[in-house]
Amino acid sequence: MRGQGLIILGVAILVGLAAVFLANSYLGRVEERQATTPRGMAKVAVARVPLEFGTVITPDKITLIDLPMDTLPVGTFSSVSQLLPMNRNRVALRPMAVNEPILRSKISGEGGRAAISAVLKPDMRAAAVRVGDVAGVGGFVLPGDVVDVLVTRSPPNANGGGQITDILLQKVRVIAIDQDASDSADKPVIGKTATLEVFQVDAQKLALAQQVGQISLVLANPSAVTSPTVETVSVEDLRDGAYVGGYSDKAPTYQPPMPYLAAAPPRVARSIVRPPSADSSTVLIVRGTKDSSYEVRHYGAH
Prior knowledge:
There is one protein chain. By secondary structure, the protein is an alpha+beta fold. The protein has three helices and 13 strands; from the N terminus they run αβββαβββββαβββββ. The strands form four sheets. Strands 5, 6, 7, 8, 9 and 10 form a six-stranded antiparallel beta sheet that branches. Strands 11-12-13 form a three-stranded antiparallel beta sheet, with no helix packed on it. The longest helix has 34 residues. The chain is rod-shaped, with a radius of gyration of 43 Å. The chain starts with a helix and ends in a 5-residue tail after the last strand.
């Protein structure tokens, strides 16, 4: 009995070893197939799960798929180790859907964080403006939208008086509302601050406009064409379907008085009384360069 048990135990060990060998061989072939890229294809790291703005990218959120080499976007990663060298985490700066390629432009640097500066173009600046419920279009202005910026102010030299509204900037991209910079939001959010992507001089205009007036945002179609000329609206234009367009912010120019010698002589009337006769007198009336004589009889003369 004891010898028979040893034989059964030995057979079980052999069967187990054979099973392990077969399993390792199968898994090795699967990994080899996965590592082998078909001709004309390339391995690309994509999102295994949806990645929102600020999500820390870890190996469990990444998978590799084969994509045609001639259709690869710029900035892809061919391996997890290339994307996360030394297991240094990166952060998503743009929302990414499942199986969407992870691009360098959509993530932070190694060990980075979700910073607004990372999503700015090299020649652009991020400028924050105060907005309210009305100025922010009732919360429908969201990150990723395009807006026009209006400024309402009281000019110092308004001919008609009152306030005016100017178009300060056109087709400006909104990169954040309050602390939310994710452009995947689809519900209105009432925010107190909007961060806009603008040129440096436009950032200066925004800073000055907030000191002299009130900022308002107007939603624009991203495909809309900017107007080369903009108008100023004053209180005189507040009529349905009417635009006067007569506002001018130019101060009245000073007109110096004409020299005395160049001024035209005033046209005055003066009378000259000549020596009287017995019953009448002659009166000479001079008007400018013309004169006229009139015979005036004395009072009570016949």
